[in-house]
Design brief:
Order of helices and strands: HHHHHHEHHEEEHHHHEH
CATH topology of the largest domain: P1 Nuclease
Strand content: 5-15%
Radius of gyration: 21 Å
Number of domains: 2
Shape: globular
Strand order of the largest sheet: 4-3-5
Helix content: 55-70%
Structural class: mainly alpha
Distance between the termini: 71 Å
CATH superfamily of the largest domain: P1 Nuclease
CATH class of the largest domain: Mainly Alpha
Length: 272
């Protein structure tokens, strides 16, 4: 005769099995509305940046973040999107301008963009009159926006909404070029942000110093060159899978690394 304890154990096993298969299928649809660079991508940028901070900069930042790491707060800029009070910051996550023009050749959007957003954050954080509350807010925003800047499709074209209107197939699933770069490439790779950060190439100090040179205006022009290559990499309706990931994974890693070391340079300049 089955004991109550045995029935309870059987029910627990069945529930666990159901949950297992539910979670196994979750990634297939969860990224449909995934944030820029996905949560994993932003955390990687934060993780890389933290390893290149000066001790002085990290002491100040750690105090402002109350012990949280750059990776842990890196998705703050997306988390606040659900609050309408922060709607004015939505245009800060991207910039659109023609492929054959430089950012400085076009009239900046009056609503702002990722370049203006980064500049605004830096100015506020450098102002000694800025309140602690604003210091915390704009620090978290800056960490997020530097990550956004280095996702190539966040330096896109208005006509197709940064690749959102370029429909493609990703391993047989409906997607678009923007989403492929936002989340499909990284999330489908199946690594945690710490694993991905550890697996990135190791650069010499000299190369890192070279990457950190220039201003956000120089960086956006450089990223636009990558963006143009990404746009040319697909045709509407194309079926993308292993070959596309193989061809572009080095670029993904490079953009994550560049974003991280540049974020560190910006923060060291402010706090360092």
């Amino acid at each position: 005769m089955t004991q109550p304890e045995d029935l309870l154990q059987l029910m627990e096993k069945r529930i666990s099995l159901i949950l297992f298969f539910f979670l196994l299928s979750f990634p297939m649809w969860a990224y449909v509305g995934a944030p820029p660079w996905s949560k994993t991508g932003h955390r990687v940028v934060g993780e890389v940046a933290q390893k290149h901070l000066t001790r002085k900069a990290w002491r100040t930042i750690s105090d402002l973040l109350e012990g949280e790491t750059l990776a842990e707060v890196s998705n703050y800029g997306d988390a606040i999107k659900s609050d309408r009070a922060y709607d004015k910051f939505s245009p800060w996550h991207y910039v659109n301008f023609p492929a054959d023009k430089a950012y400085t050749d076009v009239t900046p959007s009056p609503e702002g963009d990722v370049v203006q957003g980064i500049e605004k954050c830096i100015a506020i954080l450098k102002d000694p009159q800025t309140s602690r509350k604003d210091q915390v807010f704009y620090l978290k925003m800056l960490i997020h926006l530097v990550g956004d800047l280095h996702q190539p499709l966040h330096v896109g074209r208005a006509a197709d909404r940064g690749g959102n209107d370029i429909q493609v197939q990703w391993f047989g699933r409906g997607s678009n070029l923007h989403r492929v770069w936002d989340s499909n490439l990284i999330d489908d790779y199946g690594m945690s942000y710490t694993e991905l950060a550890r697996s990135l190439p190791r650069w010499s100090r000299e190369k890192i110093r070279q990457i950190q040179q220039g201003s956000v205006y120089d960086w956006v022009e450089e990223i636009q060159e990558v963006t143009n290559q990404v746009y040319a990499s697909v045709e509407v309706g194309e079926k993308l899978s292993y070959r596309y990931r193989y061809d572009w994974w080095d670029t993904v890693e490079e953009q994550l690394l560049i974003g991280g070391v540049r974020l560190a340079a910006v923060l060291n300049d402010i706090y360092g």
